């Protein structure tokens, strides 16, 4: 690629990726909003959704790394002008990852109660968590299938079709949530928290079917896996292994955040559920630009165009800070309406409002960390990403959250730990990138 990357090119990839990226948090946020406003057991149900969402996010993030690995490999081959050599890789990757998801369902379904006891859930919260999870987990293979197809499209520099798929899934989930949670008098009984779980599974199935349709209709990438394995499957597996370890470290942080919030009491975990899901939404909004960084950096790296790769990073830093500030400002403007959207419990809202400002203030820091996560994934530098997250979790987050717990800071402490964690994640990536590619750009 001989010409500089423009804002128009970045936005052409980033904006559809931004829209498609919010599909998963919208599924959980819709569940939280609908359930949080039920007339009966709303706070208990909301707490259960928060616990299950944290665990499901862990599973999705651990196995959903296929998107980044597939996107990285395909975009690099596209930049080198040889995408035909990896055309059979996506089908093989999809087969492996969806098979693994079935194994995880078989293991976790009967162990749901012990799993959520580890999150300090008990009584009705535990019962609701088990009910919700044992339905929602069946959407897991559909989600992983969709994520892998999205990675294929991203490697081909296309975020438009994933956007269409994600919009369809989000709309289906919203409609089904209202219908199945509250019911339709005389036609469909109100299923409450179970209805929200069924709505999510159906929406995930719709997205998987649309993903298969668009991939087969709009590309020449096959979906039937055939042997022998593509030579890049070894590199793909190593990427997945490093990302797997990295994501475990990420979910250690999320586990401790959820576990401590649950320990503090029902109103605290409900407030934490609202705050952390809005944080996830902000992360996935920023992920649009992280995806553009992933897609474009892989292609530029494959083409050995280091000058434009460095220029891309400079632009992404500016755009990332702007997007993070924009999200923070929007959140500040709608500070109180956002809380009321998810709960009408005064105790829950008091705790939520007391910490939501921290979530908003950390958005620019999150933007830089997430964007350079995307860039390094595009470069295929998964080992360095693994090491950075292990350091930020084990050396920074875990000691801090135990320290602030002893100080009895409660939710304040949890989100202070998350803020320091994001700084420790983002800063080393920026430094490493510039040290590596400034000399390469100067020598070309």
UniProtKB/TrEMBL annotation:
<dbReference type="Pfam" id="PF01554">
    <property type="entry name" value="MatE"/>
</dbReference>
<keyword id="KW-0406">Ion transport</keyword>
<feature type="transmembrane region" description="Helical">
    <location>
        <begin position="93"/>
        <end position="112"/>
    </location>
</feature>
<comment type="similarity">
    <text>Belongs to the multi antimicrobial extrusion (MATE) (TC 2.A.66.1) family.</text>
</comment>
<feature type="transmembrane region" description="Helical">
    <location>
        <begin position="316"/>
        <end position="336"/>
    </location>
</feature>
<dbReference type="InterPro" id="IPR050222">
    <property type="entry name" value="MATE_MdtK"/>
</dbReference>
<feature type="transmembrane region" description="Helical">
    <location>
        <begin position="269"/>
        <end position="296"/>
    </location>
</feature>
<keyword id="KW-0812">Transmembrane</keyword>
<keyword id="KW-0472">Membrane</keyword>
<feature type="transmembrane region" description="Helical">
    <location>
        <begin position="196"/>
        <end position="216"/>
    </location>
</feature>
<dbReference type="InterPro" id="IPR044644">
    <property type="entry name" value="DinF-like"/>
</dbReference>
<feature type="transmembrane region" description="Helical">
    <location>
        <begin position="388"/>
        <end position="405"/>
    </location>
</feature>
<feature type="transmembrane region" description="Helical">
    <location>
        <begin position="356"/>
        <end position="376"/>
    </location>
</feature>
<dbReference type="InterPro" id="IPR048279">
    <property type="entry name" value="MdtK-like"/>
</dbReference>
<feature type="transmembrane region" description="Helical">
    <location>
        <begin position="132"/>
        <end position="153"/>
    </location>
</feature>
<feature type="transmembrane region" description="Helical">
    <location>
        <begin position="236"/>
        <end position="257"/>
    </location>
</feature>
<protein>
    <recommendedName>
        <fullName>Multidrug-efflux transporter</fullName>
    </recommendedName>
</protein>
<keyword id="KW-1133">Transmembrane helix</keyword>
<feature type="transmembrane region" description="Helical">
    <location>
        <begin position="42"/>
        <end position="63"/>
    </location>
</feature>
<keyword id="KW-0050">Antiport</keyword>
<keyword id="KW-0813">Transport</keyword>
<dbReference type="InterPro" id="IPR002528">
    <property type="entry name" value="MATE_fam"/>
</dbReference>
<keyword id="KW-1003">Cell membrane</keyword>
<feature type="transmembrane region" description="Helical">
    <location>
        <begin position="411"/>
        <end position="431"/>
    </location>
</feature>
<feature type="transmembrane region" description="Helical">
    <location>
        <begin position="160"/>
        <end position="184"/>
    </location>
</feature>
